[in-house]
Every structure is written in structure tokens, then in C-alpha cells.
Amino acid sequence: MIATKFGFQPDPNGGPRWIGLNSRPEHIKKVAEASLNRLKTEVIDLFYQHRVDPNVPIEDVAGAVQDLIKEGKVKHFGLSEAGADTIRRAHAVQPVAALQSEYSLWWRKPELEILPLLEELGIGLVPYSPLGKGYLTGKINESTPFDSTDFRNTLPRFTPQALKANQVLIALIHNTGPDVMTGLVPD
Q1: CB under 8 Å to 9, separation ≥6 — which residues?
Q2: Strands (DSSP E) along 129-185, which ranges?
């Protein structure tokens, strides 16, 4: 199975990063062709929108992927980090096969609205960061340095104060196992 993503605008100067979101239908189709060539395959099994692009209606995104499915270049449509309304609207145009979302003992927010919706619509969940972006490993504390480019510097749960305050929870996990974490509220 081959899964890949679309939705970012690459750096026009050839840099290794992207410069913003781009889920315009013509860009989606261009990315699909480039991925097919790079991957040396005739079909992408699961083609995800990496992040929802607020400048492009999700119906247009789903329609572009639907076109690729009709052309036999893509088998299934996926979303990443989409909210319930966006998932419903996309699914009404082209069935969504999978949603990628952060989900762990540390981040259980999907249980409130997303997981019930996925079950209702028959959409699979592909969780990422099952160890809470490294936090649940027990190897991070209030003294852990992060490189200035590390995205965790932007997350409230990784401020020195939060890291220090939450060490008791990490100790609890490592001393008694995951059963004690059922009521954890991370942020």
C-alpha cells in the first residue's frame, strides 16, 4: 500500500521545506503526477490532504481527488487533521477512507467528536504521535533542550512549566502502567 500527501506549496527556490498551503485542484493533480513518477507506480492507494487549506473549499479538494480516482491514479482519499464539519463536507463529495490525527494517551481530543464521526461514516483512523510527540517516553523533562526549529517549541505542553508540572503523570505511567491515564487532560 502506498500512501502519500498533497497540500503544501514547495519552496520555488528548491529549498527542502514548503512555504504555505496549496490545495487548489490543479496543484493537487500536479502533485499526484509528480508522486506517481517519483514512486514509480501507476496508482496511489491513499492520497491525503496534509492539512486543510482555508483558501480552498474542501468540496473542490474532494472533487479533484475524485477526478484522480476516476482516472485510476488514486484509489482512496484521506484527510489529515481535519475537523468534523470538514470531514462531513468532503465525504459528501468523495468518500473519505482515512483520517490521520494525533491520538495518544496524552492527546485524546479526537474521542470527543472525531472518533464517533469516523465510526458513523465508516472512516478509518491513522493515529500519529502515539507517544505524545515523545513526551510519554519518559525521556523529556523541564531541562530537555529542543532545537530552535523543533515544532514542539510552539506547543503549550512543551513549555518548561508544563513539562515540570506534568512529570508526576509521566512517573505515574512508568510506575503503574497506562491504566491510570484514562482521565488525563493534556492541554
Answers
A1: 18, 19, 20, 21, 22, 27
A2: none
Residue 178: per-residue pLDDT: 47
**Residue among 187, 121, 133, 118 nearest 157 (CA):** 187
Q: What is the DSSP letter of 176?
A: H
Number of Cα atoms under 13 Å in the Cβ half of residue 101: 23
- Taking alpha carbons only, the member of 8, 19, 7 closest to residue 58 is 7
Contact 43, 75 (CB under 8 A): yes
State the Cα–Cα distance between residues 145 and 137, nearest whole angstrom: 15
Measured in whole angstroms, how far is the alpha carbon of residue 157 from the centre of its chain?
Answer: 18
Task: Choose among 98, 110, 95: nearest CA to 48.
Answer: 98
pLDDT at 135: 86
Task: Please give, one letter per residue, the 3-state secondary structure of 76-109.
Answer: EEEEECCCHHHHHHHHHHCCEEEEEEECCCCCCH
Give tens-digit pLDDT for 2-51.
Answer: 999 999 987 777 776 778 899 999 999 999 999 999 999 999 999 999 99
The separation between the first and the last C-alpha atoms of the chain, rounded to the nearest angstrom, is 35
Residue reference for cell 496543484: 27
* Three cell numbers written together for 120: 458513523
